[in-house]
Amino acid sequence: MDTFLQDLRHSLRMFWQSRAFTAAAVLALALGIGANTAIFSLVNTILLKPPPFPEAGRIVFFMNTSAQGSFAAASPAKFAHWARQTEVTEHASAFRGSVVNWTGTDAPEQLRAAQVTREFFTLFGAPLLQGRGFSPDEDRPKAPFTALISETLWRSRLHADPNVLGRTIELGGVPHPIIGVVAAAFDFRDFGPQPDVYIPFQLDPETRDQGHYFTACARLKPGVPLDRAKTRLRESGAEFQRRFPGSLQNNQGFSVERLQDQMVRDARSSVIVLAAAVALVLLIACANVANLLLARAIVRRREIAIRAALGASRARIVRQLLVESLLLGFAGAALGLAVGWAAMRWLLTINTAGLPRVGENGSLVSLDWRVLAFTVALSLVTSLLFGLIPALQSSRADLGLTLKESGGRTGSGFRQNKARTVLVVGQLACAVVLVAGAALLIRTTLALGAVKPGFDANHVLTMRMSLAGRRFTTSAAIENLVRDGVERLKSVPGVELASATCCVPLEGGYGLPFKIMGRALENNSPFHGGGGWLTVSPGYFEVFRIPVKRGRTFDQRDTAAGPPVVIISEAMARQYWPKGDPLGEQILIGKGVMSELEAEAPRQIVGIASDVRDGGLNQDPGPKMYVPNAQVPDALSELNSRIRPLAWVVRTLGDPNAVAGQVREQLRQASGLAVADIRSMEEVISRSTSRDRFRMLLMSVFGIAALLLAAIGVYGLMSYSVQQRTQEIGILMALGADAGRVRNGVLWQGMRFALAGIVVGTAAAYGLARFIASFLYGVTQTDPVVFAGVPLALTLVALIAVWLSALRATRVDPVTALRAD
626 phi and psi, to 5 degrees? Predict the structure, then answer.
């Protein structure tokens, strides 16, 4: 310990005496370690930290599988089937998030709600502050409603009433006796906003409904491995098909996936790419510090030689130098932890990129023991990475030769500096990989920005209104509200047009199969195909300026009393009528899928609308069907009102946010209800591309950091080489060599190694491009602009760095150089 303390004190003195060197090394390490700490905080939150539920490793999602992939949506019939797989799972629960109106108060407001089955609280271990969960009788169809409320709502709005059990809360005009209070310790934010109120799902276990509008989970029974559960669910698909013929097509079936794996599946590759990219930044930073230590070792050769002459063993010298490296590593880690954490928190408050498990404004990203342990381990590893090679090289110094040298200068040049050269080549290779990746993502973001979504987002305001409850159970009631609301909105100064729909573009929607009347079915399928399904009111196409290429849009004649009609998209017309004319033909949408569609009648196609990129700007438009709100079967309208709030869409003459207050007030007067989620369509588009922009931003920052560090590394290597060769250059110039020859010699030597690093990096960048191919849009993974421009840019940066050193070489005074000891 005494020896270690001596080494520590000596290291501190050395760093204080070489403050410029210390600052450069610590800042380089802080950049690398800080960036890694920031990204690891995301990796930790999204991929490593277990969900905050008891035995979370045994909780699984029920999945639908097909040749195209798998998804976690559930239908009532499928959930009833999955809940019966009790030999492998237990506590199966269905749940979905929604909003509901808290009525019966002076000012109705929207509450975040969770619709859940009775096993929900057992499955997820929700602690109850008071009361109980739902009973089997309360969760059966058409049972009297009850509710549990959150502790937050209980304390903030009900004033922590100790007699809250039995008290009634009115939701959507329907009284719900409160039977329990869910403790604030129950953290459900991994699935979305924390619910204010929980209401029973009341699914029919004997239902035949196949509409997918919620998700379902269960817990693996003790001792049941995941593979066995997957096998059982796969085998059960045949049972389901026998009970519901035609419900599963070829290659469709069931499976289960672990809760955490399913929640992060869409983000896993993004996070891994960012982690790999930031690791390259750290390697470049370590190479820079190692080069600094190697350069500094030359200055300290006499000191190390004297210590060896006084009896210090090689191991003792290596240990001293490694202690210095550890000090640098921990100093860089401390600064990097603070800067990296602050930067990531700031970035997530601006853009969470739709990443799962991070919470609103990144609230779930925490500085826990994993992040701290990672930072400490990283500082140790980096200290060895950048410290071991200089320490071993310095300890090999020839005692007699070093003591005979004057001033520490030799004519060594590049051959005696192979380690430094290799490090710089590696730096440039890593920089090429990062800059190429960033360039591909920048090109993707630019391509997405140039995509025409199929609608005009300028001057369009959107907002949501929950219609759940007894008041809006028929299509006529909903359409009357819409008609009144639209008339009121048109009276607002600055409002041009208004309409209502189930689904705003780029915010998700429904899908239903359809049958073309008069056309034979194939392969024993009950339907000819499927596509997106939207309910809209007159004026929808005009608000979004979606051209109806043929036929007509909806108008006031398309009421419940009028003939059933539908408008289809161009993509649907191309796919299902490649050589014919769909106008005037009839399709039957969704009948047989769910009981709410039993009243559905064949609809005549009256229009063909331009395609809309509804699934995302990077996805080609698919088939889509638009149905008038007034013609939706009542049972389906009631279900839609419970599933999804009505969306109001308003086209304004100027800034849509400027009229938001007046629009909200007019809709309150028309309905007596609150609206929420008020945002412009430009915000909606921005959210839809947030993950692409997030990746681009981080990769660009990493690429710029890599570029700067690599340039510093090249300049440092060449400057040191010029310094080492001062006497050699002086002799050449004394013998008549002109400045151009000296400059060209230095340029050739420097660019040789720079080009080697760029060639290696370009080859490695091709591998990275294949890995991130799924993130790219509008650009190929071997884009010639990127793979020609990036090496050229790096070559130019290296040339500038080498040129500066070459200029320094031409300014060597031969007389001064020859006199130098």
Answer: -110, 130
